[in-house]
Amino acid sequence: MSAPLTIIGSGMAGIGLLRQLRALDPDRPVTLISADGGDDYSKPLLSTGFAKGLPPERLATRDALRVAGELNAMVRTRTRVEAIDLAARTLRIGEERLPWGELVLATGAVPTRPFAVPETLADRVFTINDLDDYRAFHAAVVALGRPARVAIVGAGLVGCEFANDLLAGGHRVTLVAPETAPLPRLLPEPLGRALGEAFAEAGIGLRLGTGVAGFRALGGDLGVELDDGATLEADLVLLATGLRPRTALAEAAGLAVGPAGIQTDRRLATSAPGVFALGDAACVDGVNAMYVQPLQASAKALARTLAGTPTAVRYGPWPVLVKTSLLPVVALPPAREPSRWRIEGEAGDLAALAEDEDGRLIGFALTGACVRRKVELARAAPALLG
Questions:
Q1: How is residue 385 annotated by DSSP?
Q2: pLDDT tens-digit profile of 228-284?
Q3: Which of 65, 97, 179, 291 has its CA 20 to 30 A from that of 31?
Q4: Measured distance between the N- and C-terminal CA atoms of the chain, rounded to whole angstroms
Q5: Above pLDDT 70, what percent of the chain?
Q6: How are the residues of the chain apportioned to helix, strand and coil, as percentages rounded to the nearest 5?
């Protein structure tokens, strides 16, 4: 019989790996440890729930009990692993020492919170990174009994998708960010400005080029103090200021960890024998791609390795589809700084082609009607991890 496998993390990476493994090995003993409720859900749906009118319970396809039954695994919910002992091959969970034969770290990413929030306002300032977070934010919106005024801090992928979603759900949204245009990591500035214009025309308030200085109570409202001296009045604040790989557990155990995540080779193996990592927590051969397709490819490759066929993962030239219906956006960020961006199109229908010094395509960004070119351009672009 294969050695018992333990997976820490029940997000798309952890459950996705278990699902892929069961297609190859139905009987290997597997324990899945979840810090939350262990529900099986698609994380991208968190930023479409308000537009679709979906309460939190509609976002989960299976609860932990069904995951355990259908995927033949022991699922431990609301359980936090405190330490990994590599020498003894055990996990410390309170007074318990849980042995493992092979271990997979699918611990995901944690939202960054660069602002101090007064304790009296903590129940009105949110981050959304999992279904529990979504439940809490959704409950706060519903409790108002009217459309919410939401200040979203951060104009990256999460901030823009939630701004689009909340507006479509009937709420008033203001987007605050120090950058001069939305999606600065995905779009060159002319395309970012086009997205900002689409947001503004739809009624989203934009306070770009402005940072947050702090939060304070403002009568019955929450005041968001900006660094230009102005104050926004809001019911709720959503912090969308970025994610960082959740690596503390791995680092404390002595695994190789860098700023981009737990270091692995292309077989998802870490620096310790029998320990693997995937998903948002992992930096695979120098690449951390916090998107669905790389995660799914990693789960498929690692499942084959765990089932006895060592398999290296490959990431194709997979563009990111941003869920902003107000102006569709697709982007394949170049792996290195391009020699130039060649921009074509007009109004909101723009194509930006990232080229190297020899004129070769190394990435692209598309808005509006130009998103139809995504397949054509992806075929010409280099793989993210070939």
A1: B
A2: 999 999 999 999 999 999 999 999 999 999 999 999 999 999 999 999 999 999 999
A3: 291
A4: 34
A5: 99
A6: 30, 30, 40
